[in-house]
Write a structure and sequence with these properties.
globular
């Protein structure tokens, strides 16, 4: 039988592991912020396979829904804010938000609003940063970094895999390929459409192979947002309705489950702090406006950003109109 000291040590280790997992995306510098490189600069990365051998790919897909709010209830200093929540279609379940949003695409007057609440895809990879133009970026103790890749870059990565001239997986330790992330601009926003694979194969260096042996590869699914339970799904649905209604975020009501970046949990709550994967990230120096970050269920024009200053009365009218049409259907 384990001693009391051993039991306490194991509990402390488990708690420490959980805390580190929840805050790692913000504190350990593991995510490489390629979006912060200067326009005209290039970062070269070497992607690695997933530790999960059941994953056919060397990435996992993350699906997030952004819920904009007209401020935070009781805080006049916050005028606009956004809460990010996981879309459970990522786990093969029915999403309560998308279930309501999908029919909106059948009405031309609601397509812009539908795009606003449609899920946003991104893709999690891992690998080494081989050429780093970010002078203030510090390589962590574990140099195997994570990459949050937008659909624009992902399309380039994925389409190249279908090229018959690519004979080996680009993640192969001996005959793999570097990937060059090139940042330009288009329409005033960051553009990565000129990013590409290197033409020549290259083996991992001894230092890189030693890092893999020392630290091991990540199981990429570990960095997806936690799958919401029934109570959290109800909260997500409530927040969605309040967002469309033009209401402010109610931290006392929902903050124990999900909340905007920088907003503290309500006092007295025992709920765990939301992971960085579901909170709104701190703004990057060069935000990316990628209008092709998902495919709506119907043919639509590129999403148009709807101003978040929509009045409460107008939002209530829209929500009432939507539900009236659904009741008639």
């Amino acid at each position: 039988m384990a001693s009391l000291a051993e039991i306490r040590a194991r509990i402390a280790a488990q708690e420490n592991k959980t805390q580190n997992k929840g805050s790692s995306t913000q504190s350990d510098n593991a995510i490489y912020p390629h979006w912060n490189i200067d326009e005209g600069a290039q970062a070269t990365i070497r992607l690695l396979p997933d530790a999960d051998t059941n994953n056919t790919f060397f990435w996992v897909e993350r699906q997030i829904i952004k819920l904009p709010f007209n401020g935070v209830k009781g805080d006049p200093n916050i005028k606009q804010t956004v809460v990010q929540v996981p879309c459970v279609e990522m786990y093969g379940d029915a999403c309560p938000v998308l279930a309501e949003v999908r029919p909106w695409y059948k009405d031309d007057t609601l397509k812009e609003l539908a795009n606003k609440y449609w899920k946003k895809r991104s893709y999690i990879f891992q690998g080494f940063v081989r050429t780093n133009p970010l002078g203030d970026d510090k390589t962590p103790a574990n140099p195997i970094r994570r990459f949050i890749i937008s659909p624009q870059i992902f399309t380039i990565i994925k389409s190249s895999l279908m090229d018959p001239e690519m004979e080996e997986l680009p993640t192969d330790f001996l005959r793999g390929l570097d990937f060059n992330i090139k940042k330009t601009s288009k329409g005033g926003y960051a553009d990565y459409s000129t990013s590409n694979w290197a033409r020549k194969e290259s083996a991992l260096t001894e230092v890189e192979q030693a890092a893999i042996e020392a630290h091991g590869l990540h199981n990429l699914a570990d960095f997806l947002p936690k799958k919401p339970n029934e109570a959290e799904l109800r909260v997500i649905k409530e927040m969605f309705e309040a967002s469309v209604d033009g209401q402010p975020f109610d931290n006392e009501r929902w903050g124990a489950y999900y909340r905007p970046y920088g907003v503290e949990a309500p006092s007295g709550t025992t709920a765990a702090k939301p992971s960085a994967s579901t909170e709104t990230s701190a703004p990057a120096k060069s935000p990316v406006a990628d209008t092709k970050d998902d495919t709506p269920p119907f043919e639509t024009a590129d999403p148009v950003v709807v101003p978040q200053t929509t009045s409460s009365d107008k939002a209530q009218d829209i929500l009432a109109m939507i539900r009236a049409r659904q009741n008639k259907a």
